[in-house]
Amino acid sequence: MKKFGSLFNVKNLKSLMCMHVGIVMLSVGVYFFKMPNGFTTGGVTGMGMILGRLTPVSTGSWIWILNAALLLLGFVFLGRKTGIKTVYCSMAYSALIYVLERFLPMTAPLSDQPFLELVYAMLLTSIGSAMIFYSGSSSGGTDIAALIIKKYLKLDVGKALLCTDFLVASSSFFIFDVKTGLFSLLGLFSKAFIVDTVIDNLNTCKYFVVITSKPEEIEEYIMKELHHGVTTQTSIGAYSHSSKTMLHTVCKRPEAIRLREKIKKIDPNAFVIITTSSEILGRGFRNV
Q: What predicted TM-score, i.e. pTM, was given to this entire model?
């Protein structure tokens, strides 16, 4: 019972919510903006769109088939560490595209502004993918292919993934037209930048350096209320030659506002340095 309850703590619920919002955003971006315009920016979606154009089988069905095949290959070549979350995300994403095709068929783009639609396509799919990655999962597809290539060809994952997606995006020049191909390549490179930016923002933490004459109260608040550790050291001011305590701690962005206000309330004369970090590894933050 205790183990079951631990699955529904705040951290896990936040991760699940982030994952499901990401799946919806990814599906909406793909179905309403990428598919009608033929933006093949790589991945299973791009391959599905190309195969959907060349065969009588729908794009949604191809995405489902390709995801299932790649997941099977992942389990065969990579083992069970492929992850249950990845299986769930890829199947949920494929199913949502399939359902949208059945109930909201798209016969033409939403507007006559392809660049505007590319912007929405990249924003929705990039933010959706970033949220899925942030939850500790992936949408499957060419991520698995890249891991297989890395394992057997000793190629960096990022390079393997970029090569795979670049080949898919480049094929849009021949399957669709030059304009669509140019938009697809632009989308491919912009997506990589947006995903990294969004993940960095989601991981943003604050590093505090506090020089104070009342360290005990601040330490107690950080450890008991914020549940974070504190490192202390004695410091001597070169100008005043007075001895004070220097506290070092890190916390999440919402906690930083509370901590800043509490420090000023406890010690109005405290000297506080706050810096931003996009990656903190260790207990209470990201795993190494």
A: 0.67
